[in-house]
């Protein structure tokens, strides 16, 4: 007779618990996150906590059941709780990729800001880097393109 597998009565997935702006006192970040988790899941905090965010915003990622995520979402310090999703890299045109409407209010300085750079090892000539439809680089931009015989620069 085959062994019966133990089924977790509270299946979990990674959830992001967003608590707003980053903590003013960085020392309070992770201890506060651990304390909140402990109130909901007890002693399993070390197994559940995936990451404590403290540099760009205040929050944490943790393995939680839907019921646990709902309980944490009711805490006064929590803005929102949502399942973490793995995304595939698609484009450098982030505004459209994220799905913001064309007529959404946008900051006047956004086109001059580089939020991050991910080194995925993809080739520069990939369609993801197409400059079709882009205007010239901003006049304030001081970068250069260091091209070689096997590399093509774009805007």
Automatic annotation (TrEMBL):
Q: Where is this region: Disordered?
A: 129-155
- Per the database record, which ranges form the Inhibitor I9 domain? 15-90
Decide whether keyword Magnesium is in the record.
no
Q: Where is the composition biased (Polar residues)?
A: 144-155
Q: Which UniProt keywords apply?
A: Hydrolase, Protease, Serine protease, Signal
In alphabetical order, the GO MF annotations are: serine-type endopeptidase activity
Q: Mind listing the GO biological process terms from this record?
A: proteolysis
InterPro entries per the UniProt record, alphabetical: Peptidase_S8/S53_dom_sf, S8pro/Inhibitor_I9, S8pro/Inhibitor_I9_sf, SBT
Keyword Hydrolase on entry: yes
Q: Which family does it belong to?
A: Belongs to the peptidase S8 family.
Q: What is this protein called?
A: Inhibitor I9 domain-containing protein
Provide the organism lineage as a comma list: Eukaryota, Viridiplantae, Streptophyta, Embryophyta, Tracheophyta
């Amino acid at each position: 007779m085959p062994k019966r597998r133990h089924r977790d009565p509270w299946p979990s997935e990674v959830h992001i618990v967003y608590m707003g702006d980053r903590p003013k006192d960085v020392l309070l970040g992770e201890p506060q996150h651990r304390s909140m988790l402990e109130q909901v899941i007890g002693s399993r905090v070390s197994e559940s906590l995936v990451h404590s965010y403290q540099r760009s915003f205040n929050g944490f990622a943790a393995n939680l059941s839907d019921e646990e995520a709902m309980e944490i979402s009711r805490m006064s310090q929590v803005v929102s709780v949502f399942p973490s999703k793995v995304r595939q890299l698609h484009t450098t045109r982030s505004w459209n990729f994220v799905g913001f409407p064309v007529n959404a209010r946008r900051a006047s300085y956004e086109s001059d800001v580089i939020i991050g750079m991910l080194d995925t090892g993809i080739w520069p000539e990939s369609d993801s880097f197409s400059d079709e439809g882009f205007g010239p680089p901003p006049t304030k931009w001081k970068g250069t393109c260091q091209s070689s015989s096997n590399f093509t620069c774009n805007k």
